[in-house]
């Protein structure tokens, strides 16, 4: 019995007490041992019987009115779950009172095993992240495995987020941004970017608190919400963003170091001359590119060694990086309050209202590559460009979730830590805009790239140390989170190419760390900070948009499993957050946006082609389900209009005969099912019947259903597979035709193979079953298509020529005409032409019938040649006898002889038993003259088909209904005579409605 299933008690034990039992695993199968009276679970359950306040167990018997069952005063007060103690069965336990086994009625094994509650008692049940084929996973717990190095909210989320957010941009670019954009646009810029990350943090908090979370951070959240393809594509982009961000932080640290200590440069730096307001030339020195590259590579290697030390080393190092950063920010604000006019540097005015007013508006201008104002500079700045430059200063909100596998409590730590870091840094930025705008002249703000160090108290060296440690701490967090993200993607086993980066549970992703460091080094060699930041921004924004869209989809669908602990969220906030991400991407650079989206799309396409299938219960599956339900309700129970009619064939897979081993369906049935669809649109239902008892054959039916589904997918036929267990084929089909489908999505055409082998292999039980199926379809108002010559049906590579001939005898709602048109849409039959043969009983009806049919086909937009064939009245045919030139005379006489023999046996049996004529357990009435007429009719029709359509690609003919009160054997004789010598024929019977219409 699989986990989560209920084992029924034997009927033999109905009158005996059956104790609740524990599950144990013996030899790979679960076995059961009874729960004894002193079992912990039993003792806790029996403690419910106490009526007093202490809640202890009472030995007093239950009141008579309770029927032997206790009536607890507080049923939830003292329930405890403990599966730690079990005992072997004892004889005395079998006579214990009924009250000791309250759950016996429900058939559960024991209280601690109900719905897999063992996990709550400390026993961790490992579950695959995405169930594969063949696995029967009833409950996916997804609980993280024990790890000694678990972190709390402060060190696990808040500190990493704070280190990533408070980075190089604040120290060496923020005052410059205020000078360029002015105070009010800088406030708008910070609010705009901060709102984007704040809304993303809310969405992240909602998803992260909706269940246990494994490693992978945003990738895990997006993948489980939007599916593996979207998750892997955005996850890999986010990995690249983190890896490239590490290089940005390294370059920022090295640039600051070389600015502080110019003598440390190995190569000569560049000097830029700028005309100051006073008229004197001001020289600004910038580090040499080669120095940035050399020092950057060295720093990256050192950080890589620290990351190799694992989470334990990083936790010890992180405070050493963060404390000086916070101290440096404190020194900056102290220095702002202490600053006076031209102190500590010319251009510094101190906190002045006049300076605040002068810097209120924006003053965008050109700069050179070093960011220094230059009228002939190559870069012109505006608000959009500043968004791209500043946005990396608010990124880093995912630093905590990237290390989700190392957190003690993800559902508490991620929301609290991420939102706290976001709010603290946003408030710091907003306050800093006001202070910087009132602190120095615009010229000073634009030219002094390290104004924070200039005004810092007591000496600028504090800021240099703070900048370097801040950037190195952020780089360390990037080099820690990115490899774990890559390892999480690899461990999900979606892309085989990432298998090299897999790590064991609790292991360190060493190979992924080396790969991340390699990418970081490549970007360090580029050496241009302003070129790297827009690239990072795009990848981060793409990830943030994915998180917001995930929360939007889950919130909008509101599936029963969507129960996040974080309640302060709404789908509208997630939608606004996703929209802001897209808007910011295009504001920064439409070309970078297109490149990043194209990269994500290529990864998505590659995962779709090469990735392994995984079912993670993503939101799209829920969306499809709800969309299907809504569509089903909108269709209603009324008949579908002919313009919207689609064939929904019920393909009867069970053959009249045997198929090769491991082939659950005739190969050509799937080919024929595809021919009934226009451009692949529509659904087929493949059903087969398994003879036997349902309880005995349930597992066999599941296996057969999986095989049939696999075969349908192999044949590239859109459809579903169903296996029905029934005592026999007739009963099974009767159940199928009544219950299969929902609403207007019930199958409307039954497709099956004609039983050509029944006489050759002496299968005389087939006629009754075959006739019963057709009668069931008529009663259930289902159309019928019977394929004769299925073995010769062409596949998609066998092109056919000639004609598709329709012998349209009775009105069928236009089904036969529609099927012929559907055949023409396939490459196999596209070179064929349609011929419609209309059968008229009198010559005088021929021309009138031909004209009517031509007009009808014209109005239906169908191209076909119309041919009218007349049949003489029944009397003339009987008197004249069958035409001697037809090839079917031998079949006709053989059928007459067999019917006469069968009829003689029936009459003899009826005389001997003194009963009416009986066939297959049913009373029949035989009109010998009518039998002759039916034989002549089928003979004449067969002769006509052979005369006109012997070379046709396929012939369609109206299927006559089984005559009432005729033996099924007679009907099979009629049908055999009708299909004689016709290699490929479809017998079609419509149902009581039109499937084509003349009107637009």
Your description of this structure?
By secondary structure, the protein is of the alpha/beta class. It has three domains: 439 residues, Amino acid/polyamine transporter I (Up-down Bundle); 148 residues, HUPs (Rossmann fold, 3-Layer(aba) Sandwich), CATH 3.40.50.620; 168 residues, no CATH class. It is 48% helix and 9% strand. The strands form five sheets. The chain has a ten-stranded mixed sheet, sandwiched between helices. Strands 1-2 form a two-stranded antiparallel sheet. A two-stranded antiparallel ribbon has the order 3-4. Helix 4 packs parallel to helix 16, helix 14 packs across helix 15 and helix 16 crosses helix 19. The N terminus is likely disordered. This is Cation chloride cotransporter.
Sheet having the most strands = 10 strands, mixed
Strand order of the largest sheet: 9-8-7-10-11-18-17-12-13-14
Share in β-strands:
5-15%
DSSP, total strands: 18
Please state the overall shape, judged from the principal axes of the Cα atoms.
elongated
CATH class of the largest domain: Mainly Alpha
Instruction: Please state the CA-atom Rg, rounded to the nearest Å.
Output: 40 Å
- Count of discrete domains: 3
Distance between the termini: 57 Å
Structural class: alpha/beta
The CATH homologous superfamily of the largest domain is named Amino acid/polyamine transporter I
The CATH topology of the largest domain corresponds to Amino acid/polyamine transporter I
CATH architecture of the largest domain: Up-down Bundle
Mean pLDDT: 78
Pfam families: AA_permease, SLC12
Domain Amino acid permease/ SLC12A: 156-626
Family: Belongs to the SLC12A transporter family.
Keywords: Glycoprotein, Ion transport, Membrane, Potassium, Potassium transport, Symport, Transmembrane, Transmembrane helix, Transport
